[in-house]
Fold these 4 entries.
Entry 1:
Amino acid sequence: MPEALIGKRKKKPKMLQVSCAFCKGKGKDPFDVMSSLSNCCVCNGKGLVQVQVPYEACAHCRGTGAIKTFTCNVCNGKGVVSALPEPTVICPECRGTGDDSSAMAMACLKCHGRGRITGNNESERGK
Ligand SMILES: [Zn+2]
Ligand SMILES: [Zn+2]
Ligand SMILES: [Zn+2]
C-alpha cells in the first residue's frame, strides 16, 4: 500500500497559458465540425489554453491536438500534457508514438498515449 502518498501535501501546480494547438491559436473550430464560425471547443474561442508546468508535447497527436478531425483524447486538444515525474522511459508498447498498435487513432493503453512511462515503477511488469 502506498502509504507515503497519504499526508504528503503537493505543491500547487504551476499553470501556464499556451497557444491552443487544436485551432493553432485562432479560437475557431479548425475542422468546421459545427461551423467555421463556431468557437474552438478546446479553448472556447480564446486561442489559449492552460497547461500544467512542466509539460511536454503530446505523443499521440504529435502535439497537434487533433487525431484526424477529432480532439485528441490524451491531451484534450491542447497538444501538450503535463510531464511525468522523472525518470521516464520510452513506452515499449508503442515505442514512443502513443498510438495503439491495432488502431492508430486510439491511444496506447500502456502509456495512455504519452509515449513514455515512469521508469522506476517496479510494479509495472511487461508481458
Ligand atoms: Zn482552440
Ligand atoms: Zn494529444
Ligand atoms: Zn505506449
Note: The two ends are 23 Å apart (CA to CA).
Entry 2:
Amino acid sequence: MSKRSVDVESHEKYFISVDEVRQQIERCPKCGEKVEFTHLSDHENMYLHEEVQCKKCGFGPVETLHILN
Ligand SMILES: [Zn+2]
C-alpha cells in the first residue's frame, strides 16, 4: 500500500479555517478527481483529524491534524 503521511497544521480560528483548508485540497493532486474526506473531531483536546483519500486512483490516505486553538 501507499505510504502514510501526517501533516500538522495550526489554526487560530475554529471551523471556518478548517473549511478553507478543505476547499484547497478537495481535489486529488494526482488525478484531479474529487477526494473523499473522513473527519474525526476531538473537542476536548481541540483538534480535528482529517483523512483524505482518492477512490479513483488510490492516492492517499493523507492525514492532517488540525489543531483548533
Ligand atoms: Zn486520484
Note: Helices lie at 15-24.
Entry 3:
Amino acid sequence: MKIEVLTLFPAMFAGPLDESIVGRARTAGILELRIRDLRDWTHDRHRTVDDRPFGGGPGMVLKPEPLFEAVESLRGPRTKVILTGPAGRVFTQQIARELAGEEHLLFVCGSYEGYDERIREHLADDELSIGDYVLTNGALPAMVIIDAVTRLLPGALGDDLSATDESFTQGMLEYPHWTRPAEFRGWSVPEVLLSGNHAAIERWRREQSWRRTAERRPDLWERLRWQQPVRTVPNRPSAAKAGADIGAGSADAGKNI
Ligand SMILES: C[S@@+](CC[C@H](N)C(=O)[O-])C[C@H]1O[C@@H](n2cnc3c(N)ncnc32)[C@H](O)[C@@H]1O
C-alpha cells in the first residue's frame, strides 16, 4: 500500500512512523510512505498557504490553491483523499479495515482554523476525526490512522492472527492477559489458563470479553446485541453483578483494571 501525507509540519512524522510495526512494514516494502510539505505547492516568496476568513473571526484558514494543486499532482485513478478534521466521521477499527483494502491513501493535514470549505466539498473523498477534542494540526491524527491501518496490512504483524483477536475486531473489547510468573506478590493467574484445556480457555476468554465489554462499553454491547443473532450474546449483566454472572476468573476479575 502507498500512503502519502500533505502537511505543514513534515518533521513531526520523523520518529513515530520509523519505529515498531510501521517502521518494519516500511522496511519490508509492505508500506510505502511519503510525507509531503504543502508549501512545496506555493508560488510566492513567503510560501503562503493560509489567509484570513471571509466574514471575519479569529485565526487563519488554509487556502484552496496550494491544496488543489498538490492533491491534483499526487493523486492517481485509485487514490482516496482523506482530510483530517474534528468534523469528520469518527475513526474506528471498522474504518481502519476498510482503508487497509485501499491501494493509495492521501491524507491532508489541516492547520490553523481549518480548510476553505471548497477543499472539503470538491477535493476530499472523506474526512476523518480521531475523537471529540481539538488538536493543533492534523499530523497526529494522520499518524494515528496510519498506524492503525498499517498493522492490518497482510504481513505487517508477526502473526496476522494477532489482528483478528483484538479489541473491536469482533465488536468487543479483548479479554485480559497474563504471563509468567504464575504467581506474583501473592496474585495468581486464573487457573483455567494453566490447565492446558484449549476449549475451556477459549470459552473463558470469550466470557471475559463479554463481561469487560458489558462493564466498560455498554454502547458496544448494545450494538452487538442488534448485530448478532440473539443467542450468541448473553444478557448484559449489571456492572455490580458482572463477575458473578459471567465467568469470574481471578480475585481481580470484576475490577476495572
Ligand atoms: C485547530 S484544528 C481546527 C479546528 C476547527 N476550527 C474546528 O473547530 O473544528 C486544526 C486542524 O487539526 C486537525 N485536527 C484537530 N483535531 C482533530 C481531530 N479530533 N481529528 C482529526 N483532525 C483533527 C485538523 O486537520 C484540523 O483542520
Note: The pocket of S-adenosylmethionine is lined by residues 84-87, 109-111, 113-114, 129-131, 133-138, 141 (CB under 6 Å).
Entry 4:
Amino acid sequence: MNHTKKSIVALLSVFATSTTLLATVAQQKDFLTKYPDAKAKLGKCSTCHVKAMPKKDDSVANAYGLDLKKNIDKDKKIDFAKVEDLDSDGDGVKNVDEIKAGTNPGDKASK
Ligand SMILES: [Ca+2]
C-alpha cells in the first residue's frame, strides 16, 4: 500500500469514527449501490442531511433522511425500498421518482 492510499484509509477511518450520528460512508455507498444512476447528483451528504457537509453536532437529517432513519436495522443497513413510494419532502413527487430524476427527495425546493 503506497503512502497516498494509507493516508486516504486513515482519513476515512477518522471520518467514520468521528461521525457516528451521520450516515456512514457505508450507508452512502449502499445508496449508490441501490441507485447507481443517482451518483452524479445525489451521491452526497445533502441527499439525506440539511447541511451539505454536516458535522457530528450539526447533522440534522432532512425529510428523506428522517424517513430512512425509520428503516435502519441493527447492522445500520437501510432498507431504501421501504421509502421509495413516500413523498418525504411533500413536494408532490415520490422519492423514487426524484432519485431517478436526480432531484433531492429531501428538499421541497428540488423537484
Ligand atoms: Ca418529493
Note: The two ends are 43 Å apart (CA to CA).
